[in-house]
Amino acid sequence: AQRVTQPEKLLSVFKGAPVELKCNYSYSGSPELFWYVQYSRQRLQLLLRHISRESIKGFTADLNKGETSFHLKKPFAQEEDSAMYYCALSGQGGGNKLTFGTGTQLKVEL
Amino acid sequence: GAVVSQHPSRVICKSGTSVKIECRSLDFQATTMFWYRQFPKQSLMLMATSNEGSKATYEQGVEKDKFLINHASLTLSTLTVTSAHPEDSSFYICSARPGQTPGYTFGSGTRLTVV
Predict the structure, then answer these.
(1) Are the CB atoms for B34 and B49 separated by under 8 Å?
(2) pLDDT, tens digit, for every residue of A1-16?
């Protein structure tokens, strides 16, 4: 079984402060991890996936297999980062289902 | 980029009637599509995996006879909510994974309200 845990429902930070959205997973094989973002009234958008190891909108995420974590980080939060963030896991292969965490609402205050 | 189009975006129906939601891959072929349900302020819960030319795979607890899935072509999957009840009111989202793109692409969702 595959499972994704996001312990925080809501994370509130001030503009310019560092952000870390936590994500832990459970999967018996080699997972593919993603972060998706959902801005208000918009569809889900891919933010990051662990394989690409890239930085999008200043966000990065490193897969830690020892801790089974894939935390999302940004050194300086911007107001436009306020959104719902979902960590998701897929088993290998394009036909495999995507399992989502419960999501973390990030609120960046001025 | 790859786009998944979902229609309608919003529908209101009476209890006992059926509603069909369409999900189309616009510029790629999708042998597999996924249907999710999202309650307000909650995460996406996978309902079923739609397979082109064969039966859908339903997640545990999802009624096959209530949520009928048809994936008759490589670009279209439909979800029909049969004999709708108010508790079926929710946000339904479809998804597919284009072969050459990094992740799964999502439709804009359908807000179903059963009155």
Answers:
(1) yes
(2) 789 999 999 999 999 9
